[in-house]
Amino acid sequence: MRMSAEERRESVVRAAVIEFARNGYRGTSTEAIARRVGVSQPYLFRLFPGKQAIFTAAAERCIEETWRVFDEASAGLTGEAAAEAMSEAYLGLVEDGEQLMMQMQLYVSVFASRMGGEDGEDGIGETARQLWEELFERVRLRIGGDAAEATEFFAYGMLINTLVALGYPQDHRIWGGFGVQSRAARGAAGQGRAE
Amino acid sequence: MRMSAEERRESVVRAAVIEFARNGYRGTSTEAIARRVGVSQPYLFRLFPGKQAIFTAAAERCIEETWRVFDEASAGLTGEAAAEAMSEAYLGLVEDGEQLMMQMQLYVSVFASRMGGEDGEDGIGETARQLWEELFERVRLRIGGDAAEATEFFAYGMLINTLVALGYPQDHRIWGGFGVQSRAARGAAGQGRAE
DNA sequence: CTCGATAGTGATTGGTCACTAACTTGGTTC
DNA sequence: GAACCAAGTTAGTGACCAATCACTATCGAG
User: Fold this and answer.
1) Which of A8, A118, B153, B169 is the residue whose CA sits 20 to 30 A from A33?
2) Three-state DSSP class for B93?
3) Per-residue b/e over A12-38, b at no fewer than 16 CB within 10 Å?
């Protein structure tokens, strides 16, 4: 089906999120992305300057999407209620694993690009930090401005990432009282840890 | 320099942790590991049945090492004091990034192996979960048996992983009052969050 | 010294992958 | 209906990589 280059780019990004999430940067062939999109592999290089650019676009998309979900879930709320709503939404977002693993893949790619890893020498680290800080700031404001609470929110978020990556079902004892239904929000809700 | 197969395997594992940490499973060539060890690439396949086995050995080593550091740092302590000591030790362990990134690479590999990713079809997920649970259990006992506190400990640990991976120096404001010297311990210390 | 075992290498191979060049298809406009 | 342009394809290239095989070097024991 013939469509505009812009529309194609959009479907490439969507396909790339899935493929990169599952197999990582090196583990994903441009062939696989192209097949998922339904176009020939060389055509990708007309829509994007290279594989790295596709990865970056997918990573950006993924973090933007995370904020979109947070924003939607916590619209009109503030403080703990907002944090709770966002935590709950995050568990939903992350359930299928694709969004989550794209995040993780981004983190390891950023590290690799710093450690003289051979690929990703473009400014992916800079981009990632910018996106992360923006997300952090937005969440902080939404839950009421307290940095420590925002930090706690993200800490539990990162634990969720890890447990999901390892493949623990949400009723496994390792989730230790959080996870499963809305109780998941408890830990991340930042229930007034005074300091 | 000629050495016993067992000694060689040991140096291969050490080299593999570095290479896999920096470049991931797919991004690391057996050639690169061999070069770092100082042996020919084919010889690796005499010491290990395949690339995957080297990766698994490196991952196991890395988690065992984490416990070793925790254990040493918190020897003779219990409760919050133990948690604080372990947190502090973790920041030190993780500072250079290699241990940490090997962990992250393990997580993404486990996920990939679950998602029909083409490599890692051996039981790496099972192995990883076992190692993780063992570590969790040991930490839980050391800090006094409370699962929620252990969960919080690990949550902040995972946040540390992410921030280090993204390349934030420990005095960056995103660390929000934790990180930097022993104050790092504060967040992870599980300071009696009643419920 | 020599013989057996263990440590280690060089050459190769079948396969994969990012990326390029040159070409074709389909829609729009005058 | 032809001229034009953007969308899309087929064919190909050089580089790299895990794994195998057949071989050599070095050690220790009798």
Assistant:
1) A118
2) helix
3) bbebbbbbbbbbbbbbbebebbbeebe
Determine the angle formed by the axes of helices B98-114 and B147-166, rounding to 10 degrees.
Answer: 100
* Cβ <8 Å between A136 and B166: no
Confidence label for A8 from pLDDT (cuts 50, 70 and 90): very high
* Burial zone of B121 (CB within 10 Å; 0-12 exposed, 13-18 middle, 19+ buried): exposed
Residue in this structure with the two tokens 């690479």, named with its chain if needed: B105
Note whether A87 contacts B: Cβ–Cβ < 8 A: no
User: Measured in angstroms, what separates residue A121's CA from nucleotide D4's C1'?
Assistant: 39
- pLDDT on residue B122: 66
> Would an 8 Å CB–CB cutoff place A20 in contact with chain B?
no
Backbone angles phi, psi at B2, to 5 degrees: -75, 130
Q: Where are the alpha helices (DSSP H) in chain B?
A: 5-27, 30-37, 44-47, 51-73, 79-95, 98-114, 124-143, 147-166, 184-188
Cβ distance of A112 and B27 shorter than 8 Å: yes
Of the candidates B145, B124, B151, the one whose C-alpha atom is nearest the C-alpha of residue B50 is B124
Whether A168 and chain B come into contact, CB under 8 Å, resolves to: yes
Q: What is the pTM of this model?
A: 0.89
Contact B120, A125 (CB under 8 A): no
Higher pLDDT, B186 or B77: B77
Task: Verify if strand C has an atom below 7 Å from the CB of A41.
Answer: yes
Select from A66, A49, A59 the least CA-distant residue to A13: A59
For chain B, say whether A189 makes contact (Cβ under 8 Å): no
